[in-house]
Amino acid sequence: MINVKKALISSLLLAGIAAATAAWSAAAAEPLNVKSEADIAGDLGILQGEGSGLTAEYLNKSTTRLQAAVMSLRLKGLEAEALAFQGTANFADAGTVSKQNQAVLGYLKAHPDLGWQGTGSDAFEPLAAITAQQYYKVLLESLGYAQGTDFQYAETIPFAGTKGLTRIAGVKTFKNLHIASATLEALKAQVKGSTRTLAADLSGKGRISASKLSELDDPALGLKQSDQLGSFLTDTKGMTLYYFTKDAADVNSCVGACLSAWPIFNDSSFTVPAEFSAADFGKFTRTDGKDQLTYKGWPLYYFAKDKQPGDTTGDNVGKVWFVIKPGNGGIAIGTKPDLGNYLTDANGMTLYYYDKDTKGVSNCSGKCLEKWPAFYSDAISAPTGVNSADFGTLTRADGSLQTTYKGFPLYYWVDDKKMGDTTGQDVGHVWYVVDPAAFSGTKASQ
Known about the structure:
The protein is 25% helix and 15% strand. The chain is α+β, with helices and mostly antiparallel strands. It folds into 3 domains: 36-217, no CATH class; 224-324, no CATH class; 334-433, no CATH class.
């Protein structure tokens, strides 16, 4: 009889779990359809990458003169002809690139009318980095505008702006991901003397599949720039998006009056800037039944006092609201009542310091490092109120890199499993979260 009762109870429990699962599934957030500008540029065949394709490594490389020249030929439908070129005359430094690219350089030398003259001493400098100004020149020429006739090189950026090309105007270090952003922008612009866009023109000439042109019409999240904040994410209308540090502990931390001041952001089908990965965007259903978009696990919000596109009046409000930066700046802030503000990685995973470390030296290795893995981010753009210059890098004995804060190494804790976990706090009375405002060093250093 006892076994029968246990079986009955188990069946009821399973039925309850199944019903709860079904209810949860019914309330689950609408599926996302998200692509980055790099994804779309790849789909269109405009950006092709190298080796493994459009990897994060490739997208974050500086763009070279050779790559810009290839893009110029591709947009004019001359790439295949250039790759098949067999002329013998070439630039003096053509030997610094592959045989295939030597053919491209030879083609450019044989066709000076394409605007790719050498840089002096019969050199091309194919591996030299280019600037946003130089790439906008390429795009303007692809749209049919001629340097010296329609615009002067010194006026490239402002002239490009009059044609709707502004996306990369403020970029200081031009990377391959910026090729995607700027080229998609140009594809939507009209060809000189025509009502047709560059995309429609290329499609009509068989250079872009007509079936893929609709991808250019998807609503797109934006990326704005300010001297104070750097790059930050906006919605399709240019309104700034924010994250809430208390959401690290509970994604439903903003409720009631908070939501009146900080309305949630939600969407299901959109393009994101090339600086962002589509895979970092998600969605969850709040306890109030509403869907909300997330970036790297952080729910996204508007600020009610932002009135115009580009307003950032919500940044650093209460030291718990911040704009969304590419890669979340490599570092973020979480907040808990018992800990206050503390440093996390971009995904909200807690970072710690070791009280036995000294400045610039990690005293955690071997078994210690297995439990406290080193944190490293190659670029830090810290939230407002935290000085990005306080982050540095040390090289560990094994040659690996580790990020430091105010000179002290940062670590994860192996038992933290999800965003907001702080189970490493006070372990052995030597491991602690990092309050960026209060932290001044370890006991060992003092």
